[in-house]
## 1
Amino acid sequence: MLVPAAPSGDGGVETFGVARVRNIGVDVAVGDWVVPSADGERIEHILTRRSGFVRRASFEGARAMSHTIAANIDVAFLCHSFGVPPNQRRLERELILAFDSGADPVVLLTKADLVDDPEPARRELEEVALGVPVLVTSGRSADGLAELEGYVRPGGTVAFLGSSGVGKSTIVNELLGSQLQATTEVRGDQRGRHTTVAVQLLAVPGGGWLVDTPGVRALSLWHSGQGIERAFADVFELTDDCRFRDCKHDQEPGCAVRQAIEDGTLDPD
């Protein structure tokens, strides 16, 4: 059985589709495959996840707590809007989380109808994404929708992640071919309100699954594995040429990273 939805606790602002299953003492998230009891009243077992989008949720005393936003995602759409300047630092964190999750990230620039020329913003995020696809879409005009649909495959699961007001629900409705997800107008400063208040798993016509998530204002990293190396591949490739294996890239002689910054071939930011 596939877990389709989980309550968001306090309205979806800080809690994302994770519930503790008391009889087995573990957390189950939207997208998990589970084995129910014979009477359908309990979850007996959670099958091994092939991916899990995990962020740092909160602190309990001195102990940091992790939070699985969704499980078994094949493609994670990292949504940013033309309504606000590109947030490169947020995208870096999203890429790290996506790579660590095991999903394939795709950057999605929404609301292209708000600008005359989408190319400057797209190129700016491409420089951060380092080979990750950057798609330009508009929920109102359906521009870019066909390219987006190419990532939704029968048997696969895609997820939309981003802050409030970036247009996730509008794009989701276009993919579903219905107004299933509520949408609202954003404020003049392009800050949105939470129209999606719980993580939901939705069936896409023609096959495949779609995970819609509430907007996440603050995106904190959990324990990073290989994600940080993949998100900053240009920096990590240079470290192999540093004179010292334990180079801190500060004032050490023979630092290839510092040299690349001085040569202008690596952005210091």
## 2
Amino acid sequence: MFDVLSFLIKNNFLFCMKFSRYIRAASIACTKREGYRVENSFS
């Protein structure tokens, strides 16, 4: 069994995009953290 926490940290954005539709709390957290960073990256 791999280290789940380590995996989530390394793949945080991909995890958010993949599971946010299933986990509403994750969706909100990802939108606030990753969404801000992604917007700035692509703008």
## 3
Amino acid sequence: MSDKKYSSGYRAKRKADSARLAALDVLAQVREEDAYANLVLADTLRDYGVEGRDAAFATELTYGTLRMRGYYDALIERSASRPLKELDPLLLDVLRLGCHQLLNMRVPEHAALAETVDVARQVTSDGPSKLVNAVLRTIQRTAPREWEALIKGQSDSRKATAEITSHPEWVVEAIRDALGDSSFDATEVVEALSANNIPAKVCLAARPTLTTRAQLLRELGDQGSAAQVASTSVIMDAGDPGRVAAVKDGRAGVQDSGSQYVTEVFTSIPLTGSDREWLDLCAGPGGKAALLTGYARSVGARLTANELHKHRARLVAQNLKAFSREDYRIRVGDGRTMAEHDGERGYYDRVLLDAPCSGLGALRRRPEARWRKDPRDLAELNALQWNLLRGAVDCVRTGGLIGYITCSPHLSETRDIVSQAVAELPLELVNLAPQVVDLPDALTTDGCIQLWPHRHGSDAMFLAVLRKK
């Protein structure tokens, strides 16, 4: 356990259930060390000797508790009759684990209570464990609908929606604005936020010219099914993607269906004149670069994959290993100033800019991410996105296309920056309506694409296509 107050002899006792202790340890690492749960969970389970079904239980307990932390905290604070800041952080984590077992796992209530109290007793003492028992019993006695009604009656609509859906208030506001709703508790706002609490399924991308979705489905057998949105997407219903032959040899890769879709749409826009040189301006780690290389190869074009960081450029190379070196080149450099190098200015027919962003569109994939993001970071991100977009304009030829992509629906990262680009740069916005006839609810009022987990089963990807004048 990370908390020094309780660390002495902690792992030696092992009286409480090991799966729950392991989950508690991961929560402490996330809270104290800014660890990522997916990176520390496997080692922690190994340390506690947790395997098989117990490991699956501990995994769901960990990730589910992190996702629903905001909701559980609202219930705990009301049930403990004291501010959360007055509770010991480790004890608060124990209470959160108990809440998840009671409210969102198929654990018998008596077992959830007894086992959580045992964990509290082991890592603290009898006094705090009695508080855990009392708080969880109060939560148990009140039905979820009653809790929601209580929260709504005690808070304004923004705070209530934030607590009920387990998100920071600023994220609730961002999602409301992106959806164009007038109220924080509008049905679709709640649906969009609630979708972030449903774990994303593993999705594979069949890389063009290397394999097809049909071939990938045949390889997977009963472990795979066709995914929504992209024609290259396959949902992996069971098994380890790392063991799939097509993934091992690079014919396929793990990639969200929305990410695949926006790449597919961008490459399908007709282009007048030359269409032989394509650029991925921020290529790491290489999922979109692999799709782009396949699409480019199918029309006789070549991809240049640019990446700022050498270690991420190596990941790009790994993702492109199944293609011929004639199909692509990899360069390391800053996309903001790439056009300053010989031969790069105005050289490319298509430029894809998958811009660094807040990642608000992928919160379902990273359970602790929503609690770490800070709205004050947006100004710096917006400046970076703008400078990269200017870099893309410098690299694309007159009449060429820029695909601007983010994994965020936040207006400052999407439609606002695109509007500014059309107003200040030699660009015109391409209306994507012809490309989304089968997906009309993905089209924004200005002709861009905004995907949503609750509508499309994908991450909330955004795409604007701009033509250089």
## 4
Amino acid sequence: MKWLIILSTLLSSPLAEEQWPVGDIQFIGNYSIRENKLLDQMILKPKGIFQKIEFSFSQLVEDIAALQEFYRRQGFFNANVNLAKLDRDSSARTVDIVLIIDEGHQTKIDTVTFSGDAVIETLKLLGSTGMEPGEPLLLEGIDSLQGKIYGELHEKGYMFAQVECCYELDSSRTSASVDCDIETGPFVRAGVLNILGLDKVKEIVVERELQFSGGNLLTSDSIERSINRIYTTGLFEFAGIEPVDTFSQLPDSDSVTVPVLIQVRELERMFQVQIGGGYQSARGFYLDGEASYRNFFGLGHRLTGSGDISSSLQGTRLKYSYPWIFSLPLDADFTSFLERRDEDLFTGLFYGGEAALGGELGMYNSFRAWSRLERVNWIDDPSGAGQDLRLNTLILGLAVRRDTRLSPLLPGSAVYMHLEGQIAGPGLSWSNQFYKSVLDFRAYFGFFDRRWGISSAILAGYVDGYGESGDLVPPQELFFPGVSGGRSVRGYDEETIMPVNDQGDAVGGKLQLIINAFELRFPVYKWFSGAVFVDAGNIWASAENSAFSDLHWSVGAGVRIMWPFFLARFDYGIRLDSDADLDGRLEFAAGLPF
């Protein structure tokens, strides 16, 4: 080819002796495929602000071959990619590349046929993979069609099915016929379980998480759910499950029973420490820490000590977690706590304990029920209410949650919803009496390979007293921004968005509404990303005095710095209240704002 002759000539030039970076890369004749898509197939890249790649003849040869293969996979079987020009820019000391492309015709699908065993609906698969007659022949589409057929068969229990999709071009390479040959084989059932990779963890920890047992039909769904359950124990960094084909030739029967290989890799360290902190408009500077050992008795029992330090809260907690209590798929945890809260209205020392029971309700849903007993020693009595408050509070609570996020730091396209209800002191004269409800809803939409994301959230809550307490609510149970699961409105301090007394002290409220109306996250460079957002919110003394027009709005921008398993963010919110004069506040913290 002509470009090979050019390259061989240039190999003897002075350019081959001195390494210069690539300057510009131009394409001529790429009418069907955009330039940035072609550049994605190449190792050599144009020079940029943060990018400088040294030119290499051998790499250029490989890149041209990669472009040729890319065009073929897009259905351009007659396409040719050639080197048109190679310029050495002495002033810039760079190498400019010009590639000329003759795309030819794109091959279209003429017919799609299926042979062998027909146990799945093939028509809908054609539409979902772009493999309908008349559509361009994309080799990725053939791979996708074959993969989806495998997926359908594995979901039905044909774990040893064989699928082969191939294509045949006509003499002019303008159309092609596609055929998929399907051999389902027998249903596959679970036999003996072979668990490999365990050292400090007992086999029962893995076995109890499996969503199938001996004799059960194996499906891709039961295997996937089992792997997810093994990961949720928090004891393993890898888990895989695979039925073992022990037959030289599959028998002609409806089903076979085979061994199941379960491979796991335990965490190197079962003792872990996590530390986080930052600055928020409502909380000021804060520091959070947690240390845990997660494998007592080889059964995944966990002991966790944690603490919080901020201007308004200093606390410590010790929690013991007991998975699969009474050999049931339920997790129990027992917590003791001691904390001091310093608010404008009160200062108190709170201590007590909590017992909770939780479990899964399907793949993404869970529940938690708990009982919490708390006692308070008032250091500074709440003004005008101390004589009417009990020192003890018994709370019964129930929460349900749906969480489809990939992870809290990289949610992807997902929904998170937490609905919680509490009642304190039912029928007990020695306890404060109130009820509380909280709704936390978040929606995430990721696009461009999840490098970009749009998200919104609503946090709403209501609390009020009843019975002998009347409408009195203990001040520690009122809503404060950024405290006990609350979120702040970026740009505002707490006194601006909640009730205050005559001295201007924040006193908490019975009704809260925090709206993260919009947040757009986008990549900037490597581990840096940016964000723009719109927030709103308010906390009211009572529901009767609330109005949507009372919401305080803010807009702002921020920077995210992402490391493995850690995200730091810096947000600057600008207040939009009529009397704010576009003042703002800086906030930095660990993790996403919601």
